[in-house]
Amino acid sequence: MDIDNEIAKTQEERRKKEEELASLTSLTFDRDLYGGTDRDAYVTSIPVNDDDDANLDSMDSEVARKLASYTAPKSLLKEMPRGEEDDNSLGFRKPSRIIDREDDYRRRRLNQVISPDRHDAFAAGEKTPDASVRTYADVMREKALQREKEETLRAIAKKKKEEEEAKAEKESSGAAAAAAPVPKRRNRWDQSQDDGTSAAKKAKTTSDWDLPDATPGIGRWDATPTPGRVSDATPSVGRRNRWDETPTPGRLADSDATPAGGVTPGATPAGVTWDATPKGLVTPTPKRQRSRWDETPATMGSATPLPGATPVVPLTPGVTPFGGTDLQTPTPSNFRGPMTPEQYNLLRWEKDIEERNRPLTDEELDAMFPQEGYKILEPPASYVPIRTPARKLLATPTPMGTPLYAIPEENRGQQFDVPKEAPGGLPFMKPEDYQYFGSLLNEENEEELKPEEQKERKIMKLLLKVKNGTPPQRKTALRQLTDKAREFGAGPLFNKILPLLMQPTLEDQERHLLVKVIDRVLYKLDELVRPFVHKILVVIEPLLIDEDYYARVEGREIISNLSKAAGLATMIAAMRPDIDNIDEYVRNTTARAFSVVASALGIPALLPFLKAVCQSKKSWQARHTGIKIVQQIAILIGCAVLPHLKSLVEIIEHGLNDENQKVRTITALSLAALAEAAAPYGIESFDSVLKPLWKGIRSHRGKVLAAFLKAIGFIIPLMDAIYASYYTKEVMVILIREFQSPDEEMKKIVLKVVKQCVSTEGVEADYIRSDILPEFFKNFWVRRMALDRRNYRQLVETTVEMANKVGVADIVGRIVEDLKDESEPYRRMVMETIEKVVANLGASDIDSRLEELLIDGILYAFQEQTSDDANVMLNGFGAVVNSLGQRVKPYLPQICGTIKWRLNNKSAKVRQQAADLISRIAVVMKQCQEEQLMGHLGVVLYEYLGEEYPEVLGSILGALKAIVNVIGMTKMTPPIKDLLPRLTPILKNRHEKVQENCIDLVGRIADRGAEFVPAREWMRICFELLEMLKAHKKGIRRATVNTFGYIAKAIGPQDVLATLLNNLKVQERQNRVCTTVAIAIVAETCSPFTVLPALMNEYRVPELNVQNGVLKSLSFLFEYIGEMGKDYIYAVTPLLEDALMDRDLVHRQTAASAVKHMALGVAGLGCEDALVHLMNYVWPNIFETSPHVINAVMEAIEGMRVALGAAVVLNYCLQGLFHPARKVREVYWKIYNSLYIGAQDALVAAYPTLEDEQQNVYSRPELLMFI
Amino acid sequence: MQASDRFNINSQLEHLQAKYVGTGHADLNRFEWAVNIQRDSYASYIGHYPMLAFFAVSENESIGRERYNFMQKMLLPCGMPPEREDD
């Protein structure tokens, strides 16, 4: 168990290290040094989910090393069945929609629009761009306008609010006076007021805001709802294309573009709807010449269910029950509703209800009430109409003016839920796919379509196959898309792919596949992507902030490939406008994307641009984003920033004194990121910021201060000892002041900075003890800190760091009393800290008084725990006891008493913990010579073997194992001969924990104390063990196989072998595989000659499974015995001969792998004759095509290369290198290549002599020289 | 590419070619192979100092000269490539 953990830990560490190294080397920057990146540098594919390759080669790739103990090869153990929980994590999950796990911020990606293509200055060359193309200037102008608009809107809103406040104030003061005359009817108050003021105002303002950018982009993809260009007043007719011609379904009528007027004349009272909202909500998509956009649901105002009302949609293939409005518009709007059928229904309901609940009009009221006796009153002056946003939303004019209930018109063409059978072998379509792929269902005659449309259809088909198809379908479709990418053209491809990625119902897998398509296509299209860079970025950037790590990596890869394809200039041109976007989301993602560009194209290339952006005078947003880019670069490429550290710091340093607080904050954070990335080097680059930072912490408060502190925290560890100590003292004053801050974020940062300062070399223990510790413990070691997970962890880390400086006694002495605190989470925090401190530093500092307190405390805390899922108490107890060692002796009776008492507890959890504790402290008990006590515990545990909770039983077995391990087989009480028979039935238990602990214990007994148990008992156990070979857990199978070895050693191989050989006849492959491993292990433990005769005899059984099992055992056998094989090679050669000539592929495959292991084992031991003989049988198999067989054969040949020498194999090879048949040549060259890679140098002496030709000299005269 | 090739080192033949210059393929002609052989041979001579010493003694040259000669010969070990028949 422990060893396993350790191995896992080491592996984890190594993996991390390798990752670090990989991240160092994998980046391409420094163009000048490494050369420009061309297409070779591309990541050619994203290999997630390439289902078919992964599982096969993982088996063979791992080199089976010579084993220290008896065990099965890794490849085998790995291939064993997996438990259910694994299956869950391996793709049997229900597919998850991305949107379901996104938070609101991430969902803002759906607000982005896929902008129209842009001008490609490189492709156009010197030409002036056509007026209809969006150039960089256009985009910038547009953005500027948008900014201005936003700002104006904000100003208006502010002013309005102020006005209203003023008014409200005035009115409330005059309310009493005004209350008296109320001449109108109550119900109509809300109208009259608004009619006059805000409606008029609105009319004016809307026109003001929207006129300039209202002109639709006449460009090619006007379906996209971006505000078009300003200059484009005259549509260039030449550019009209099919996009314009398609009738947009669901469009009501272009003429009724003013929603407030025409459509709903009297139905909705104007007042409620159009009152004060100054913002997007209203934007009534004002009148335009060609307002194809009206129906796009991009703006809330017009997005309301207008499409919904019409179930009869002209263009849609008659399948989609929800209006086809979006068919043209690739951007799903922020209003995601109309997409799914449920949402659609919901909207209908809503609208219906709204209709019924709408305010009554004057006419209706007049009709209701008698003419006489009623008077219309004026609304009181203080009355303000309701302005809840929800109400306003609902109040949007219903464009249809639907009556209360409409009998739905029957349309035979529509099939609501039943998907139409997709024609032509297309995969199944989900309802939400109809929107995009619906047109594929029209069984039109493809020949009649225009070539453009045919192409589009083709793309759609392929995409659908990629998205929903089976793996083979997907694969071919993906390949076709890649191969034909240039033929299809960038435009049509991206216009189909990108909208799909914006689909709100997209699932992870689908997104992955589509992203993969983009990646492949990018690679092919290369510079043709330039006009589409921004579009692609809009859909890919959100991946960079996805919570899924792999999504982020994919996003990075795409952007990096994109920037290599499009070039720096295009990337900058595409992203520049977004840098000072008003939306923080856009800026954030853009900054991240920029950092990826920087890592792909090299930081130096981007430096001038960054410098300019960070100094932007125009807007603080630009500066903010620029500095954020630097931060992201640091985070992304880590220590690779070092060569550019100085310039990066110089670029951002002025931000520390920026007038905008956000800029100051981000600057400090960026410096922190840079320092973190550069650690432990690069302090000299930060020289210039030290002063402003240290000055800053004295003048700032709140967030900015936190950011500054963070930066300081990361810079201090870079410093030399003297400086570090000086600067630490400077900052400590502030830190100590901020200890009291109630702000959570500040607390975390302060803790972190304290940790960083304390761990720095120059900071003395005395200083910490006197200046920091008192305040620190007073402010942080409080119960509240244990409640928040992150605070908890940070506090523990910081305290442990302090302990490293000031020693165990100081820290433990301060908190030991808290082990008896009444709050359990707090006790747990104390325990965890003590555990870590003691484990780090040992217990030698702890004096006897403290020791007493400590033991008392942990006993209390251990007993009082109610829930401990993380085993904190257990680990703490174990760590303290183990580090105290012999000093625990006086307390052991007390501890054991507790344990015994708790083993008898009613609660299973308590019993389990008690048993676990025994296994933790067994070693110390032995040190304290408490063997009698342990024996006693052993008996107690033995009595509890009837435990019914498997978790507890597992722990009890574990505790027994620990005791047996330390006191040995002979001294064990109860005696082994009593213990083992009790364990045999437990082996039947199917619970993993029980199985594992039980087999470990049995294996240990078989190893050390087999003689205490009669052979009959061991045979019984052997039969039980066969069942355990099926276990899901690798550890159990390994322990089982090993136990076979021990048992065979103890009672002789004959009986065990007979059992195992019989087991080869079973049907289950799993079982047979394990059996073969066990046979091989038995052979190794008891010497091969005891096993080989029986094994070879078994080969005579005319049964496929048995023969293969024998061959497989031989293969493992020779793998394990290594050079011992030289004594047996002649014995088994006839058998292998036969197997290598067998008709059955698997025979040949297994025999080939046996030959491989044999050859590798006996290399250099003089068995060449037998090996050459076998090689002659192996060689004819080189033309096999089945992957496993050919693999085994090639490996056998590799083995021969090692054993016989490269020259011999080369001579086999030469006959086919220039064979007339290409298929033959291919195979021979393949062998030649692996030979060459394996033993290039050795071949020099063996190459054939080639005859010279006319002017070419092929002879190698040097080799003929002779002295 | 065959299905089986996916699993071994030949799965990325191009990559392999780039990494190990001397590897070959089905379309390699006699001349190209011979050039590889020659270069490998010279590299091997240079790499094994005793070999180099042996050649130096037998040709009565200094070891440095031998090394230099071998390196020079690696440039065009078999002379100019023959004209291709097909183009």
Distance between the ends of chain A? 65 Å
- Gyration radius of chain A, rounded: 39 Å
> Level of helix content of chain B?
40-55%
Choose one word for the global shape of chain B: elongated
InterPro entries (chain B): SF3b5/RDS3-10 (IPR009846), Splicing_factor_3B_subunit_5 (IPR017089)
Organism (chain B): Corchorus olitorius
Protein name (chain B): Splicing factor subunit
Pfam families (chain B): SF3b10
Fold and architecture overview:
The complex is a heterodimer of chains A (1267) and B (87). Chain A contains 60 helices and no strands. With 1267 residues, chain A is an all-alpha fold. Chain A has a domain at 452-601: Leucine-rich Repeat Variant. Mean pLDDT of chain A is 79; it is low at 24-30, 33-38, 43-70, 77-92, 178-339 and 389-401. Chain B is built from four helices and no strands. Mean pLDDT of chain B is 82; it is low at 1-5. Chain A binds chain B through residues 53, 56-57, 60, 1184-1187, 1190-1191, 1194, 1217-1218, 1222, 1225-1226, 1229-1230, 1232-1234, 1236-1237, 1240-1241, 1243-1244, 1247, 1250, 1253-1258, 1260, 1262-1263, 1265-1267, and chain B through 2-10, 16, 20, 22-26, 28, 30-31, 33-34, 37-38, 40-41, 44-45, 47, 54-55, 57-59, 78-80, 82.
